[in-house]
Amino acid sequence: MSGGWGLGCRLHLLAGALLAAAPGLDDKPALAQTAASRPSYENHRFNEDWSPLRDPALQTDLLDPLKWIPLNRDGSAYLTLGGELRARYESSRDPVFGLGTPRRNDYALLRSFLFADLHLGPNARGFFELASGFAPGWAGEPPPTQKDQLDLLQAFGELSLPADGGALMLRGGRQEMSFGSSRLVSVRESPNIRRAFDGVRAAWIGAGDTRIDAFIVRPVAPQLGTFNDSNDRSQLFWGAYATVAIPALPGLKADLYYLGLERDEARFAQGVATERRHTLGTRLFGKRSGFDWNVEAAFQFGSFGTADIRAWTVSANLGYTFADLPFSPRLGLNADAISGDRNLRDNRLGTFNPLFPKLPYFSEANLAAPANLLDLQPNLTLALTPKLNVTLGWNPLWKQAEADAFYAPPLTPVRGSPGGSGRFIGQQTSASFEWSATEHLTIGGTYVHYTPGERLKQAGGRSGDFAAGWAQFVF
Question: What residues does the Alginate export domain cover (predicted)?
Fold first, then answer.
């Protein structure tokens, strides 16, 4: 155990030393000349391709020697090293509308990632990523998603082969996955330890935006300790996900997907049983003439013990950007209708399961799971500078089915919340900012105030606040 702590601390110290040097890393004039040709940092680090740095003229950053390390004479075999350090402070008062614990929690979240991406010619690669997370100041014992001294976040092998009109990718091992807008499959960004899966994934990658993925995996369950994370044998997840452009309508793209989940001892307000759930869905998204849209609908069926599952969701994220006005304001509207269970005593479960959704979903306060909900979230985003955005939002929430529970993240029915009179859950107002200080450094913060509705007040709910600030350094 002590050896794991030592290595985890060394990861933090290495990334910390790089963070201290961050303000001097970027040569802005040189980057401006070659910005169109240089690779960029991605949310999924394995998507980055730093092979263009074969050209010495593109090596304009102090850390470029880590991104392109040739291992043979012609450079067909090369290594990329990289990582992340994130320091985050959070203060929470009366979480989950006052129904969560502890009532007050002020703590730091420190995480560091370090990866090696080994390319053995154009068709084979291995990707390995270590993760370390600590939560000093946490009231009580932090959950494993916040405190995991040292473990493998990702470790997979990959083959890429030419295929008819595109390429075929085969990947096996521990890996991150996210699809579409991350409503149903996401990396879980806010906690220290991101979500990963153990299993296999295949993809056909065509021209433009065309891509079809298929996978069968088990989610990884973080554990307190060192190199002891294992997959959750009580869950099996499989599916197929396709993305295509719509040539007849410029700017419009579509996703089509099927997702399957088998889960032991699944808990809903109706009870506890084995869940076998199938999800069919589609998403339309794009941008045109100042408008942007992201609309998604999904239907679920299957079994919950002896009961049938019939559930659904419809979600939309719509906006218009006034590019000619000062600060380029974007007026947005997010809306969700997510089914709940109308009768807890019949032989049908109507509660939607969001599977492995992004966290946070509605705000950084992480008040509600996207199940049995109706919500609206008008919002305004201002670009105060080209690299500094501020967003303001208001978000009332209702139950979709009055008989069903209010579900706390990740998907837990809150005691005392089923039934009652009235659907109104509560509301939250939020303000956040994000500043891309350099190519490597991002600084952000948020404040959320929330008040429960009468039904949650009767269950013991109360008003509360959440505030967070963070600095994230990638290399």
Answer: 78-467
Residue 285's closest CA among 312, 313, 256, 323?
256
Neighbours of 91 (CB within 10 A): 15
* 142 backbone dihedrals φ, ψ, rounded to 5°: -65, 150
Looking at the domain 2-474, which fold is it?
Porin (2.40.160)
CB 373 within 8 A of CB 424: no
Of 3, 32, 24, 242, nearest to 132 by C-alpha is 3
pTM for the whole structure: 0.90
Taking the C-alpha atoms of residue 468 and residue 464, their distance in angstroms, rounded to an integer, is: 14
* Rounded average pLDDT over 219-236: 96
Q: What angle do CA 214, 215, 216 make, to 5 degrees?
A: 145
**Contact in structure between 159 and 170 (CB atoms under 8 Å):** yes
Per cent of the chain over pLDDT 70 is 92
Nearest C-alpha neighbor of 397 from the set 356, 350, 447, 452 = 452
What are the DSSP calls for 367-406, one per residue? Answer: ---SSSEEEEEEEEEEEEETTEEEEEEEEEEE-SSTTSPP
Read off the pLDDT of residues 50-74 as tens digits, 9 standing for 90 and up.
999 999 999 999 999 999 999 999 9
Q: What is the DSSP letter of 83?
A: E
Give burial (CB, 10 Å; 0-12/13-18/19+) of 74.
exposed
